[in-house]
Amino acid sequence: MEVGRSIVRVDAFDKVTGRAKYTGDLIDRPVLEAAILHSTIANGWVKAMDISAAQALPGVVRVLTCFDAPDIQYPTPGHPWSVEKAHQDVADRKLLNRRVRIYGDDIAAVVARDALTAKKALALIRVEYETCPVVLEPREAMATGTPPIHEEYPDNVLRHTVSEIPLPPDSGFQCAQEVLDCPGYHAFSGHYETQQVQHCHIENPVSWAYMEGGRITVVTSTQIPHIVRRVTGQALGIPWGQIRVIKPYIGGGFGNKQEVLYEPLNAWLCTQVGGRAVRLELSREETFQNTRSRHPISFDVRAAVDQDGRLMARECVLVSNQGGYASHGHAIAANAVTGFRQTYLDQIAHRSEAYTVYTNRSSPGAMRGYGIPQANFALECMMEDIALEMGLDPIAFRVKNLMPLGYVDPLNGITCHSTGAAACVEKGRQWIGWDALREKYQNQTGPLRRGVGMAVFSYKTGVHPISLETASARIVLSQDGAVQLQLGATEIGQGGDTVFSQMAAQAIGIPTEDVRIVSTQDTDTAPFDTGAYASRQTYVTGHAIKKAGTLFRRKLLDYAGELFPGAEGLDIRDRTVMDGAGNTLITLADLAMEAFYSLSHSEPVTAEATAHVKDNTFSFGCCFAEIEVDIPVGKIRVLRMVNVHDSGTLINPALAEAQVHGGMSMGLGYALSEEMKFDPKTGRLLNGNLLDYKLPTAMDHPELAALFVETCDSSGPFGNKALGEPPSIPVAAAVRNALRHATGVAVNTLPLSPQRLVEEFWKGGLL
Amino acid sequence: MIQVWNAVVNGQPVELGIDPRESLADVLRERLGLTSVKKGCEVGECGACTVLVDGTAVDSCIYLALWARGKQILTVEGLQEPDGALSPIQKAFVEEAAVQCGFCTPGIILSAVEIVGSGRTYTRDELRKLISGHLCRCTGYQNILNAVERAVHEAHKFVGGEETQE
Amino acid sequence: MFDLASIYEAKSVSAAIRALEDDPSAVVIAGGTDVLIKVREGRLAGRRLISIHGLAELEGIALTPAGDVEIGPLATFRQVAESPVIEKTVPVLGEAVDQAGGPQLRAQGTIGGNVCNGITSADSASTLLALDARLRVRGPRGEREIPMAEWYRGAGKVNLAPYELLVKIVIPRENYEGYFGHYIKYAARNAMDIATLGVSCMVKLSGDRTAVEDVSLAFGVAGPVPLRVYGAEAAVRGLPVAEAADQIGPAALEEVSPRTSWRATKEFRIQLVRELSGRALREAARKGGAVL
Fold this sequence. Notes:
The complex is a heterotrimer of chains A (767), B (166) and C (292). Chain A has 767 residues and is α+β, with helices and mostly antiparallel strands.
């Protein structure tokens, strides 16, 4: 079995020897350097620009401004394109913008012989602005009289959606509101807020572009090369086939590089200097200010619970702060209310309402979990708070209401094909010693107190039926009997290349060591795949690999059948073709040589297949955390923490565990310390660097434990389902619930930072 | 403004012209093609550009190249054995699944080289402190610590005991 | 590549001072962890640098025959933290600088730079202040010695003329002998961070180790510059250790003036002063053998 082996990563050797090449390591010389001029206002217009001094600086090749850029609005999110106009992404920005909507908006660019000259030239550009008041919060943006940030959205609401699941015909209620108001049920309401955080991949976005044969090649650090090609074509208004995108190894993405950030500008700048190579590398500060982040969302939730502790109805009203540009737009808010609805089952009704609102903040977009880390914080705080209000055991209350096997989401039809949710909870409970600790930490006094908390989540796998799910795979025989695997799916650090290789090996019947994956995507040659996001690749691309592998295997065996007429029951084992009686007929290496060089029938075997996946399934899991809080100084120390996941069958358990660690770490930062802070007056990001933005260091982590409950999902290509994003989801709520256990204080806003805690403890009378 | 610069880089004497305004990271990456030296922040906050200068881990992005004149500089390109075998530290990173996107990896490996080379053993918490100058977003540091711990223990033929806390 | 006019590598202290006399606008660079960041940010862009990096006469940590501790300003945080002299005489200083940044930064940043850049959050500053360290500076007309108490002249400004160079940090024997110290760095992270509040406390116990015979308490980030709370120190001198620990925080509030910034509110910093002062005193006393 190749699936299920904890083999070492196929790229590990190259990465520990420094030989793995990332975009910035591959730059061709000579290369010109581009730098972007960012606005020093957050809302308004560029009235005029004087570039004469910059243009005159020796070494400057060209200065281009928002007055020069093509008048084309284009969309940036890494969604599959929709052929239906109504589902197409919002096209609300230009390569360089005269209308300034965030502090640091892109208003001009310099191309120079070196980076220092480009930077100096930026300082010489004089800009005249017309300013509008800065609006950073949705409630101000939606207030009557606030001028629109985008003319097309006069009330600054990008989108507002309401949905309600159909009520059972015999319920006796007409709508969710009636159930929520029903005096026979325990009524709960709560308000929860999450903060804006960033991905913090260690490699900043970087690309370089050059022209060859009249076409533009962009080499870039992206999760989605085929989408970069499309959006670059759209932004420049040229046929998409005129663009070639090459994606080497990337230094992390986490959703930020599931967006077409600066490739179009880089491509355009290249065309403006005669096709000479131009590099556009963002600084860390630009990455913070000008790339994406996770949406801050505020939630107002309600629930009606019967005396047995069953959820009768819930309501979730959320407002998502979109910042200055639509990016992934309402998709994230919509996913958040959907995620809030799932995990647990409402017996009668569920109502959702979501607003996505433009403001002048740096624009959030996709980030690991796509709205679900926010929704899960609200959901799992709510579940905890209901349990405590009603005197129910928080775990029993959750388990009683969990989505059952066979659950079909009433609105999008996503089906629960497998569930290890309850088993995950039980495993976590045992690991942490829940019952004893809940008892032990009751009624503490003193400045140092301990608590234990948990949270549960569910997460769908891929984007069907909201968007297209398609992936292609190509398998090519080598003369030595091994194969090359070519995919449009991308390795972004998660271990994709390794598990793809294992899947191909499994499908063909050869050892993984005989699968050589082509890690780099070149859109001219890589099969089509929309890329790394939505925890989709092992599921969707997995199906394509399985299909191509099965086809490849059949072709190999057919060819062997020609060589050994009359042989029956052919099979591939131990790098040989065997017959049904177990006789070795030919080694794969010899078979390959025949296939390549036979004078009677030459056919170097290849197989290519596309999987258009029209199914989806849920992953599950939970986090348990034991914490100690130092009340007078507001500090939480996480003592022990475990995530337990049901991601179906694990393709590579060791890599799965490693990925869970990373997600837990990201969840820990979300829980305790990370937050993008903006100056309310100017809209400027105040902590856009790795010193002031508090990404946890090795000293800020407890030991991380990752456990699994393996189910075999019938819809997954190898029994597998989502894994990449889920680990970061439940951590914040688990820590918050542990804090509530330790102190009795319910903190409903993230992050649980020291100052916030001290303020809450003052309010709660603990200090 | 070009000045002659010499140093021993990965065991080989190197002499070249540099601009004195260049950081050590600039010289190693741009002039010597040692692209394992990554830039993640350029201000000493992420550790991706860490190299060893005379055996000490420094952030090469905020270290003037001219200060390294005459010194021994090590990057991960210089770690493999002459026959190509991985060093024990590299091997530990591979086998402990301590590598994900790989961008922070070369820098952390170099800190690990210094740690292992100190001739001491360390507690888990001491190791956390010794790698705390590196930011990693993929791993939660868990397997990185496992790899460093393993390399330290292997170097000392010392496994288990009170100095490991698990 | 940094945006600089030039870099002059001084081969001696006197050469550096001469260069400073020639161009008082030049910037002295030692470890580079502060200056190069400011150059990149633009605050020191285009300037002329005078590098004193690696000047042997400014390195080293030694004990004089009289028992004073002398620290060369080019001693890195790491060298201070690992110095047997420091460990024997003022271990609290080693513990304090061992919390600056991360390991690489501590191997690059120098204690002299930490003192000369004048920032209130400097991890060495509050301890040097609590120790009444003396700073020996040299200019074209010779040397002078400045007590830490007279060093800070406002946020980012220190008592150093443009053509002067810090050449030694001196901790007189009588300032540390018999004292035990403790430094608390309060920050959002346990590494790679700047202090939200730094508290350093030196305690001398009574013979029976039950009372505080003498105490000094200094803060970073409790005001625009590192500061001592002499009134609070006087108020708890002579008290039993536990009582002193309880009282010194509230007493210190009279003398601190933290401000609200986006990093933390004044109220939160005051809460930290109230709480952490006593903790620092208690811990220092515990190191001195007080039973608590």
